[in-house]
Design a protein that fits this description.
The complex is a heterodimer. By secondary structure, chain A is mainly beta. Chain A has four helices and 29 strands. Chain B is mainly beta. Chain B has a 26-stranded mixed sheet that branches. In chain B, strands 22-25-28 form a three-stranded parallel sheet, with no helix packed on it. Chain B is globular and about 70 Å long. In chain B, about 50% of the residues are buried. The N terminus and C terminus of chain B are likely disordered. The chains are: A mainly beta, B mainly beta. Strand 29 of chain A pairs parallel with strand 30 of chain B, so a sheet runs across the interface.
């Protein structure tokens, strides 16, 4: 066993020079003592697989090219076993595992799996195509397309960390298959178990298309960490839900540059939170952000420069930005630079017309700064256990704010320094249950420390 | 020359011999056989005849490479090794999806004498003055990475400036022009680590107002150097221009939104730039502008005592909402200026604009807020620090339709004995007391009988077809 790496290293001393590439990463495939991962044993690779593996080893390749293993990427050949083999081989590499999926459409009929692996690099030739990855035939994009049973999962990563997924697309159906038949349920499912979290992964330039769900973090609501993911240059198109968080440990989901169209709920936080979004374009989607939980573990949501609009015949449809119902928890949400492009909403003749942009429920405190509203803004509905709050600063309203807000007895809002469409300031509007407490500026303010010492928080804060 | 050709031929033969899988034949053979020839080639522009010595005209080689990039045998990646490539005609990408153009490195400012290109890739314009270096039409999911685009060769520029020290050298008009084709948006592309230097415009989105979908681009680590305008948008569909880390030096304007908006900038340094952001459009389609951590300063020499401006916004018929978070005005030497420019404000806020500063530092007069009757201008500053000028004196000028407020600000006095460093809130605002709605009342949602501003422009009947 030791002989092979030495030979490889000797070979590789020359290989990078010939390849004209950067330094190659040594790869000794330590195959013998690894268990199989997804029903494909490395002892029984697909037809021709063993020879290909041997060739790969001889070549000292730093990266497993799925086409070297027999994947064809022609949209017809079943490439499942070959891509799974590539993932297995990369997972078994004792150092960095890299998989390269050249441009093409790869037909996938069973769930692809990666189990308990760190520092993988899975890359294609191009991703995040506009609208549909198979629309531009001949484009230099990589697409894994589902052609298995309807409702299936395309890729499942279990306890995967520090890995990079980039430049490819996942599609829930093959071009030619109709909408309903053989459409995938979930495109990318993460999971974890005790001691094995899925975290610190990056997704760059990845597109998700045609499925019930794009990305789902965790399977069950009580699963350990499926969190700390950075997603940049991501496209969601034609999905029921774009991104769904199931577990409570919602920590640090960063989206940088998100482009979404024709999707039901874009970001769906069943539990958990701590979201940061920078620049999102949302076209023809039912709702951008749905928050079903929140609380101490992760209840902070920040969104900068979100733009919501529709196209063509959908222009008069009503699209929503936010629904919060923290369900006994609490959450803080802040939008800066939100741009509501729903002026054609006025032409909506259905009951949908009366739907507000945001539904703010008990336990939520929502802030808007520097945003533009062209349609009714929010219902602020608290209950006896928890109030609902909305604060809007320096926003533009195309209609008097109180006409575009509704609130119940326990829903409260402050509208500060806002202007009309012509830039003329409105008077501030305040529906707030308490007044400001003024403490003399010269006070030596030690009350809080004293309060801690007296142990007022021992029983936890009480809600009125 | 002949010797060079021999060396190149040798290199090609050598490559072919050593690496059958990366076959040069790829550029002519469109068929693909994944079983045997499994590795699609990363194209190298030098294999298409580019020389990159700054003398040879490499335009034809680039055109050939661009034409080959989407062929099946290519991986969709074009590599441009370090060197200076002389370009005399516009390079066009039309309709490509998922391709990548990669250089070997970008420089700090553009073209540096002596040490300019040893490890970097430079595309240098040497065609008609005012021409376009790179134009893309309706491309998507594409990546441009690690190279320079320069509007005139450094030696030519320096020679010209020796003869005409005050004139603009004959240089490219636009270094990168993004256009939407018919039915094809030029969208969802990325540019990383690119330096734009010596031209009228570094990046321009659209040729005309009608090219609506030249938008949605993620720029990161971008340098603008010696440009009239760094980034210019002239179509109304300003959607999602995200800039992460911008370095601008010696530009007349860094961002110019002639129409459109939705600009999102994180971390921008502007040195000796006349104006950081100018907005002439905006409105219901795209009127929000958010800039975080922007720093504005002069530089050694005369630059310290010139007046640099941050913002000019005059949407007039539309509205524009502009927010700066963490703006740092590094112009304390402004106080020593003796020229008329001393009285120029940092921001010129015109009718229809609503501007907010949050957590910022000012060391020079902040703004002139000038509205018109029926179209006021507003400015709100919170949680910020004022040096040299005070909110009630020196910081603002405003006409009768210009309104401003400062909230929770302090001055730059850090003397422990002086307790006045917290400033009173200052308000020149047309409304006084807030409307108090009883806290426990019910406010119904009302969407009937609403006076709507857009009746003239949007007819609901048309939309329902």
């Amino acid at each position: 066993m030791r002989g092979i790496p030495v030979l490889l290293l000797v070979l590789m001393g020359t290989a990078p020079v010939l390849l004209g590439q950067g330094p190659a990463v040594p790869t000794d495939f330590d195959l013998a003592d690894k268990e199989e991962t997804a029903g494909i044993s490395l002892d029984e690779p697909p037809p021709g697989g063993r020879e290909i593996l041997q060739r790969l080893r001889n070549k000292g390749a730093a990266e497993v090219n799925v086409r070297d293993l027999g994947a064809k990427g022609n949209g017809d050949h079943d490439d499942t076993a070959f891509i799974q083999l590539a993932l297995n081989v990369a997972s078994h590499a004792s150092r960095n595992g890299r998989v390269y999926i050249p441009a093409g459409t790869y037909r996938i009929t069973e769930t692809l799996r990666i189990d308990k692996k760190v520092s993988l690099i899975i890359r294609g030739d191009g991703g995040a195509s506009k609208f549909s990855p198979q629309f531009h035939l001949g484009g230099k994009t990589t697409c894994l397309a589902w052609d298995g049973p309807a409702g299936g999962t395309l890729m499942r990563i279990h306890a995967v960390g520090g890995s990079s997924f980039r430049d490819f697309n996942l599609s829930g159906r093959l071009l030619g298959n109709s909408e309903e038949e053989r459409r995938a349920g979930v495109l990318l499912q993460t999971s974890s178990e005790r001691g094995w979290s899925t975290m610190l992964n990056t997704f760059d330039n990845v597109g998700f298309y045609h499925a019930d769900l794009g990305v789902r973090m965790g399977v069950k609501s009580n699963e350990p960490t499926n969190a700390d993911q950075h997603l940049q240059n991501v496209i969601f198109h034609d999905l029921g839900v774009g991104f769904q968080v199931m577990g409570p440990q919602g920590v640090d989901y960063v989206f940088t540059f998100l482009f979404v169209c024709d999707t039901g709920t874009v970001l769906d936080f069943r539990r958990g939170g701590n979201l940061l979004v920078n620049s999102a374009q949302i076209t023809k989607c039912d709702v951008f952000l749905n928050i079903g939980s929140g609380g101490k573990m992760g209840g902070v949501y920040l969104c900068n420069n979100v733009r919501l609009e529709s196209t063509g015949g959908g222009r008069t449809m009503r699209h929503q930005l936010l629904r919060t119902n923290p369900n006994g928890g609490h959450c803080t949400v802040r939008f800066a630079g939100y741009n509501d492009c729903q002026w054609a909403w006025a032409g909506n003749k259905t009951p949908d017309r009366a739907k507000p942009l945001c539904e703010i429920g008990p336990g939520a405190i929502v802030t808007f700064a520097n945003s533009i509203f062209l349609s009714p803004v929010a219902t602020v509905m608290g209950n006896k256990g928890a109030r609902a709050n909305l604060i809007m600063r320096e926003c533009t309203f195309w209609q008097k704010p109180e006409l575009w807000l509704s609130a119940n007895e326990t829903g409260h809002f402050k509208i500060l320094n806002c202007t009309d469409a012509r830039g003329k300031p409105y008077s501030d509007r305040v529906k707030w249950p308490v007044e400001t407490i003024t403490i003399p500026a010269t006070n030596n303010f030690q009350d809080a420390r004293q309060a801690w010492n007296e142990g007022v928080f021992e029983s936890g804060p009480t809600e009125k | 020359m002949k010797h060079e050709t021999c060396v190149r031929r040798f290199a090609i033969v050598f490559t072919v011999l050593c690496l059958p899988s990366v076959s040069l034949a790829a550029s002519t053979d469109d068929s693909i056989a994944p079983d045997t020839k499994t590795e699609p080639a990363v194209l190298n522009v030098r294999d298409f005849g580019a020389v990159g010595d700054g003398k040879a005209d490499d335009t034809a080689a680039f055109k050939k490479a661009f034409a080959a990039i989407q062929r099946p045998a290519s991986s969709g990646e074009l590599f441009i090794p370090a060197g200076t490539y002389r370009i005399t005609e516009t390079l066009v990408l039309n309709g490509q999806q998922g391709v990548a153009i990669r250089g070997q490195g970008s420089t700090k400012w553009g073209d540096l004498p002596g040490r300019n290109s040893s490890r970097c890739t430079l595309l240098v314009w040497d065609g008609e003055p005012g021409g376009v270096l790179l134009e893309t039409v309706g491309i998507g999911a594409c990546l441009f990475e690690r190279f320079n685009m320069v509007g005139i060769a450094g030696d030519k520029r320096r020679a010209f400036l020796r003869r005409n020290p005050k004139k603009t050298p004959p240089r490219a008009g636009i270094l990168y022009l993004g256009r939407s084709g018919s039915g094809q948006g030029n969208m969802i592309n990325r540019m990383k680590m690119i330096t734009f230097a010596d031209a009228d415009a570094g990046i321009q989105m659209a040729r005309s107002e009608k090219e609506i979908c030249a938008s949605d681009i993620h720029f990161s680590n971008i340098t603008f150097s010696r440009l009239q305008t760094g980034f210019k948008v002239i179509n109304n569909q300003g959607v999602d221009y995200l800039f992460n880390f911008v370095f601008a030096v010696n530009c007349e304007r860094v961002f110019h939104m002639a129409l459109g908006g939705n600009l999102n900038v994180h971390n921008a340094q502007a040195t000796c730039c006349g104006m950081v952001l100018e907005i002439n459009g905006g409105g219901r389609n795209a009127g929000t502008y958010l800039l975080q951590s922007v720093r504005l300063e002069g530089h050694s020499g005369a630059g310290w005592e010139q007046r640099w401006q941050l913002l000019r916004v005059s949407p007039y018929w539309e509205e524009a909402n502009v927010t700066f978070i963490g703006f740092n005005d590094a112009q304390w030497r402004w106080a020593k200026m003796t020229t008329a420019a001393r009285s120029t404000p940092l921001c010129e806020i015109g009718p229809g604009a609503s501007v907010i500063f949050q957590s910022s530092i000012f060391n020079s007069p902040v703004a002139s807020v000038q509205g018109v009757n029926g179209k006021p201008a507003t400015l709100v500053i919170r949680d910020s620090c004022f040096g040299y000028v005070k909110p009630e004196k020196g910081a603002f000028t405003a006409n009768e339709y210009g309104y401003y407020k400062t909230i929770n600000c302090r001055d730059d006095n850090c003397d422990a004995k002086n307790l006045d460093s917290v400033l009173p809130d200052v308000s020149k605002w047309p409304t006084k007391k807030p409307v108090i709605i009883p806290a426990d009342s019910v406010v119904p949602l009302n969407t009937d009988g609403i006076e709507m501003y857009w009746h003239q422009t949007v007819k609901p009947e048309e939309n329902e077809k």
